[in-house]
Amino acid sequence: MSLFQSMSVCADIIAAHDALEDAIAAVDWAAAETALGLDGYTVLSSLLTPEQCDEVSGYFFQDARFRSRIVMERYAFGRGEYKYFSYPLPDVVGRLRQSLYPYLAPIANRWHSAMRIDQRFPSTHAEFREICHRAGQQRPTPLLLRYQANDYCCLHQDLYGEHVFPFQAIFLLNAPGRDFTGGELLLTESNPKKPGRADVVPLRQGDAVILAVNHRPVRSARGFYRANLRHGVSRLYWGQRHTLGIIFHDAK
Q1: Which sequence spans correspond to the domains of the chain?
Q2: Which Gene3D superfamilies did the record assign (predicted)?
Q3: Top-tier CATH class for 3-247
Q4: SS3 46
Q5: Out of 86, 151, 166, 169, which could bridge 147 as a Cys pair, Cβ 3.0 to 4.6 Å?
Q6: What would the pLDDT profile of 183-234 be if each residue is shown by its tens digit?
Q7: Number of other CB atoms surrounding residue 124 within 10 Å
Q8: What percent of the chain has pLDDT over 90?
Q9: Residue 168 to residue 41: CA distance in whole angstroms
Q10: Is 61 exposed, middle or buried (CB count within 10 Å of its CB: 0-12, 13-18, 19+)?
């Protein structure tokens, strides 16, 4: 590839990543907050282009980008594997983390107020990351997951220390039906005042789901109480499924 071609490719990548920030800014965040409050999740359609999905899923084989690899079956987490990115994060991953956070932080603060949780979140992710790091949570948590035939993920919560941001984002990087079958995102809610429920979240390639990390506020006659949420992935029947997880708090 010539120098001119390399410069052209870099310019295209930068333009695509700038467009990503514009797409996040264009989200109807009021509607997203309503959906989060009702269901504990909201889907943001087509945030990543197919080219960006291919770029990110291709990182899986670039070991230098990651700090650790987890084979899920060894820890009874399910079947499949995932890798935690190391700092510095790839540009698109870092931009997603930094660009989503300012829209979610005010919602997080309103949730904490409703649930009588003292912690409040600053306006930028850089400030929040510094809070995590001062508390010893210094390991980056964005991760890339790969599922193949018969792989699945047990229901869980992504909690890594004292400072927990109440939302995370999951991006589907492959096309259901074309690249894999099965492998649906599962969300369950345990409600202390009514029977629990489960949702299957339909996602297309490039979609993101914003979901509650551990609980959501539920209104009652006496204010709000907490409903507990977990998420997982159903068994993949064939093909390959990659997802990018954006967790905003770092780990100890």
Answers
A1: 3-247
A2: q2cbj1_9rhob like domain
A3: mainly beta
A4: coil
A5: 151
A6: 999 999 998 888 889 999 999 999 999 999 999 999 998 899 999 999 999 9
A7: 13
A8: 89
A9: 10
A10: exposed
pLDDT in tens, 46-93: 999 999 999 999 999 999 999 999 999 999 999 999 999 999 999 999
Residue 113 DSSP symbol: H
DSSP 53-104: HHHHHHGGG-GGGEEEEEEGGGGTSEESEEEEEPSSPPHHHHHHHHHHHHHH
Q: Which helix (H) or strand (E) holds 239?
A: strand 236-247
Q: What pLDDT does 213 receive?
A: 96
Distance in angstroms (rounded) separating the CA atoms of residues 182 and 238: 7
Q: How far apart are CA 249 and CA 131, in angstroms?
A: 9
Amino acid at 55: E
pTM of the prediction? 0.92
